[in-house]
Amino acid sequence: MNGAMYCEILGKNLLPSVRALKMGCGWVFQHDNIPKHTARKTKEWLRKKHI
């Protein structure tokens, strides 16, 4: 898996789950420092989504 695939998974699962659970702004997203989590693509995606 690479950063692009990771972002696709986050987009399909993370954001819909946050909305469905009505979590609002009171949640923390946490991941470790493996390459797909620190890839430029991932960092850009998280920044654009304000995560």
Tell me the domain tally. 1
Helix-and-strand structural type:
mainly alpha
Shape: globular
Strand content: under 5%
- Poorly predicted tracts of residues: none
Count of individual beta strands = 0
Count the helices. How many? 3
What fraction, in percent, of the residue positions are helical?
Answer: 55-70%
Topology order in helix (H) and strand (E) letters: HHH
Computed over alpha carbons, the radius of gyration is: 11 Å
Main sheet specs: none
Give the mean pLDDT: 93
Give the CA-CA distance, first to last residue: 21 Å
Q: How would you describe the overall organization of this protein?
A:
The protein is mainly α. The chain has one domain. It has helices spanning about 5-20, 35-40, 40-50. One of its GO terms (molecular function) is nucleic acid binding. This is Tc1-like transposase DDE domain-containing protein.
What does the secondary structure layout of this molecule look like, with pairings?
Layout: H1 3-20, H2 35-38, H3 40-48
Helix pairs in contact: 1-3
InterPro entries: RNaseH_sf
Organism: Cynoglossus semilaevis
Protein name: Tc1-like transposase DDE domain-containing protein
Feature tags:
mainly alpha; 3 helices; 61% helix; globular
Short description:
With 51 residues, the protein is mainly α. 61% of the residues lie in helices and 0% in strands.
